[in-house]
Amino acid sequence: MTTDASETTWLPAIRKANGPLYIAIADAIAADIAEGRLSEGARLPPQRALASALGIDFTTVSRAYNEARHRGLVEGRVGQGTYVKAKRMKGLQPAADGLVDMSMNLPPLFDDAALTMRLWSDIASLQGEHGLDLLMRYQAPGGTLHNRAVGANWLQPRLGEIPAERVLICAGAQSALLAAISSLAKPGDVIAAETIAYPGLRALAAHLGIDIVGVPIDKNGIVPEQLEAICKSTKLRALYCNPTLHNPTTATLPLERRKAIVAIARTHGVAIIEDDAYGALPIAAPPPLAALAPDLVYHIAGLAKCLSPALRIAYLVVPDRQSCVRIEGAIRATSGMAPPFNAAIATRWIEDGTAREVLGAIRQEVTIRQTMVSRLLPRDVVQTDQEGFHVWLHLPLPWTRGDFSGRLRASGISVVASDAFALDLAPEAVRLGLGAARTHEELQRSLMTIADLLQQSPAASSLVV
Question: For the HTH gntR-type domain, which residue ranges apply (predicted)?
Fold first, then answer.
């Protein structure tokens, strides 16, 4: 009998799996393609031969091959067998012009084919675990109790043990912020925030008819004495803050200031909304405000910056059952529920350890990119944190933020001027996102362009004729 030269003697190394055996075999096919053990065009063993070798029934192998076909990993050829179709990841490709849109604050792409394939395999495996129920049923506004418990487990290293009943699943951090603010304040009310703050907060407050007063900050974040003065002169419904790797300044609020802010808020009866978008990135950071005052703080932990911007899932930890009921009502009124499919993906990635691996890969890539910043940009104008993936660039005189961002835009680089963040007078600064560059070479060229422009004068670089 003649054997196809492309046929392999492949046997799957099956990981311990919570789901069916056929899913585990399909996962093994995906992993071996990603890691190069199964090359494009290779012929898989005949189904009966693989079933015999593994000591399992033929039907299980048949279902595994069908699952792999559904995932786009293999293809069946009539009368010939089953062949690997998926291509191994080739590495990230640069943009056509070699430059990037640095206005978006995205987690950096990591070049890990096996981990990438695992992400997609986990998504595909949801079919075997949930069937049509996941796709054809509504869920409660705050998510299923199981998804909430997994979210509590994900947050445990930062917040300690928290009951699942205090965790609500939201359709991204913006949805969580909308639910929290709309449940705490009504049109005409006043909330406070850092005087340089997340633009999404400004847009949301304007939409709800809520006023924002800016709390002055320094290089370490909110100045407690300034917050105290505002609390004494203004009736605040809430304080919004981003205490860890602040967007855009990258400041992380020291522990003593965190304690002081909690004490001030408690004295004046002000709820705290803690946006912990970047809180998972540092290996060690001061405890979140929600860990210091769980009865006072609404803690928002999105997955966009530490796992996937496309997932649109955030965990909102609330102080008590009463606030939980109120927030569930806000979720029902604004978004209905978080997408159950997205919530299931997040749960799967967290439970099987994939989320931790992705976080580790992002951290490694951040270190590489921050090293490039240290090497290429002047230190006296850079404000950043080695564990974050954005930079707050203080512009030297006579540059203005408008001139500088305009010159960069003409060079094909987009950055965000401070006007987008300022509640009061905007400083001469811009934010650079390090994560949008697809390759290190692409980021290096962009940083070199920025460094070169900083050495020029606005008049010398003018394009006006």
Answer: 19-87
Q: What is the pLDDT of residues 294-308, one digit of tens each?
A: 999 999 999 999 999
Q: CA angle at residue 289 from 287 to 290, to 5 degrees? A: 100
pTM across the whole model: 0.82
- Which tens digits make up the pLDDT trace of 61-83? 998 898 888 777 888 887 788 98
Closest C-alpha among 384, 392, 446 to residue 421: 392
32-37 — which CB contacts under 8 Å span 24+ positions?
33/73, 33/84, 33/86, 33/88, 33/117, 34/88, 34/89, 34/113, 34/114, 34/116, 34/117, 34/118, 35/113, 35/114, 36/88, 37/10
423 or 134, which is more confident: 423
- Collect all residues with Cβ–Cβ distance below 8 Å to 62 and sequence separation of at least 6: 47
Whether residue 398 is preceded by a cis peptide bond, meaning omega within 30 degrees of 0, is: yes
The whole-angstrom distance between residue 243's C-alpha and the CA centroid of its chain comes to 17
